[in-house]
Amino acid sequence: MCGIGGELRLDGSPPDLAAVERMLPALASRGPDGEGRWQHGPVALVHRRLRIIDLSDAGAQPMVDPELGLATVFNGCIYNYRELRDELTAAGYAFRSTSDTEVILKAYHRWGTACVERFYGMFAFALVEMATHTVVLARDRLGIKPLYLAEGPGRVRFASTLPALLAAGDVDTDLDPVALHHYMSFHSVVPPPRTILTGVRKLPPATVRVITADGRSTDTTYWRPEFNRAAAPAMSADEWQERLMAALRTAVRRRMVADVPVGVLLSGGLDSSLIVALLAEQGQSGLATFSIGFEAAAGESGDEFHYSDLVARHFDTDHQQIRIGAQRFVPAVHQAIAAMSEPMVSHDCVAFHLLSEEVSQRITVVQSGQGADEILAGYDWYPPMANVARADAVEAYARVFFDRRHDALGGHLAPEWMLDRDASLEFVAAHFGAPGADTALDAALRLDSLVMLVDDPVKRVDNMTMAWGLEARVPFLDHEVVELAAACPPAMKLAQGGKGVLKAASRGIVPDEVIDRPKGYFPVPAIRHLAGPLLDDVRDALTARPARERGLFRKDYLEELLDAPNARRTTLGSNALWQLGLLELWLQRIGV
401: Cβ–Cβ under 8 A, 6 or more apart, which residues? Predict the structure, then answer.
């Protein structure tokens, strides 16, 4: 896991090395173990390294292969790199390291851009053909690893984080009105290629972009699951459970590939508990597990230690309970905001940031349970979609998921920021209208798995863990697991209140008390119920000079929220004031 950055000049001039160099401090937390830089003709690359596979200097980046005429910087992990290395060695390639980075170079030389179809893993990389100065950018199937871009006159820059591009300079930091509409309506999700800033874009997941030296650019989408039954054989419920569990066993085993110890973030929910169970089943002993809890607020509990302790005892893990008191909380909120590449409303960010700080003091790699709810229908907005006609799916989805509908948004955003069209509903309609996805629920799960998941929970985990040089691996987002879940009949996923097929498959593997418990989450009550110093910070941000000059929100709506900070909730129960405050806190933090 690392931080990458670079620049390609398109006008024949050399890259701005000073600008590219300015990216490195902003990428440092992603790679605390070393840094590197490389320049050839119109291309410059920079890299910050987190040593996980091949801890020697042979694994350092940027990695250059003069014989093949290729160079690359890479963030992530190719879990099947050993198998690919053996195949490439048999084809005559010689290796100088034992790193997965070198496998990418050889694989590209052997198979071209189609090499990504052979990679099992999470990755974002930039690869340079030195003879032609062609740059190839690629991102993994589920967008687990980020890649941001900023285009300017005669050049393209790219980096693992948005702040790194800002550090390089010369970025249009005007707000994108369509992205703002998504932020306020589409549950704070801004789908690619947009970000909240007009001058920064992100490469979509499962995409390879080839940029030639004359500025021509082509994108190829190399993976898209169908979300229907066409590719799935007729199977009984028992057979679906067996197939799912077999795929998860493989996914968990793949994510143990490392030259350092691997632990688990254990929330006490079914998903992370199952990861622990499958690792124990595969012979992992003394597994390091970690859970976090906060002080209660407004009568709402701030921890789920009962369940995480139960799992830790059952599987005899080396468990650490992390309790966060009030004195650490407010500073941690601001540290979490500083770690965000984009504004992320979920209070889980603070939990993951604090958890990652503690965990990184002991280990470098963890597995985590993100993604199960999105691919297996675990959220409470999925059952209402079950009997909706396919033709009515878009409206039904917007009704249960959107924070605000377009008409209501007119009473919240200042007139100059309002669009004359419902951009969020148009986006959902286009996604739902694509071929595949037989039922309304299939369409909702496809959208959530391929868009919402990427730009909410997955991005959240990446940003917060990498702020502390911690690599998080997510077995539920193994692409073979996602493909299988997409083909599974909707009724099997909705059973037992959601994730029914997973719950049934987990019987006898995970304690029943965990399977049958009410659905939980990372509870952070002090954000759901704003008060004290954090409320003061939100108020200050929303009334500060930059916020007044920006004028995003209607004054009467803002006053209403500030007068009753915890009265207004979005459709899914988020604090409406926090959504506004977080955006301004983030914008002011990055200096916009």
Answer: 186, 187, 381, 444, 571, 572
* H or E stretch at 8: strand 2-9
Distance CA 248, CA 254 (A): 10
Q: Give the long-range contacts of residues 544-548, CB within 8 A, separation 24 or more.
A: 544/584, 544/588, 546/584, 546/587, 546/588, 546/592, 547/584, 547/588
Alpha-carbon distance of 441 to 377, in angstroms, equals: 9
Of residues 521, 515, 516, 473, the one with CA closest to residue 270: 515
Residue appearing with tokens 């992100």: 202
What is the spatial distance between Cα 31 and Cα 257, in angstroms, rounded to a whole number? Answer: 19
As to burial, measured by CB atoms within 10 angstroms (0-12 exposed, 13-18 middle, 19+ buried), residue 335 is middle
Contact predicate 538/531, CB 8 Å: no
Q: Which residues pair with 126 in a beta bridge?
A: 73, 137
**Joined tokens for residue 56:** 């020697």
Asked whether the beta carbons of 154 and 10 are under 8 A apart, the reply is: yes
Contacts of 430 (CB under 8 A, 6+ apart): none
3-state secondary structure 408-461: HHCCCECHHHCCCCCHHHHHHHHHHCCCCCCCHHHHHHHHHHHHHCHHHHHHHH
Q: What is the pLDDT of residue 379?
A: 93
Q: How many Å apart are CA 167 and CA 170, to the nearest integer?
A: 9
Give the whole-angstrom CA distance, residue 260 versus residue 51. 9
> By three-state DSSP, how is residue 213 classified?
coil
DSSP string, 293-322: EE--BTTB----HHHHHHHHHHHT-EEEEE
b/e per residue, 221-233, with b = 16+ CB within 10 A?
Answer: eebebbbbbeebe
pLDDT mean by block of 10 residues, the chain; 592 residues = 94 96 97 96 97 92 98 97 98 97 98 98 98 98 98 96 98 98 96 98 98 96 92 87 98 94 93 96 91 75 86 95 84 95 92 92 95 95 94 95 95 97 98 94 97 96 96 97 96 95 98 88 76 96 97 97 94 91 98 92
Residue 105: CB partners within 8 Å, gap ≥ 6? 63, 65, 68, 70, 72, 127
Closest Cα to residue 55, out of 467, 365, 361? 365
Q: What are phi and psi of 156, to 5 degrees?
A: -130, 130
Counting beta carbons within 10 angstroms of the beta carbon of residue 261, is it exposed (0 to 12), middle (13 to 18) or buried (19 or more)? middle
Measured in Å, how far apart are the chain's first and last C-alpha atoms? 29
Sign of torsion over alpha carbons 324, 327, 333, 336 = negative
Pairing type for strands 148-152 and 121-129 reads: unpaired
What's the confidence (pLDDT) of residue 297?
Answer: 65
Q: What share of the chain is helix, strand, coil (3-state, %, to 5)?
A: 45, 20, 35
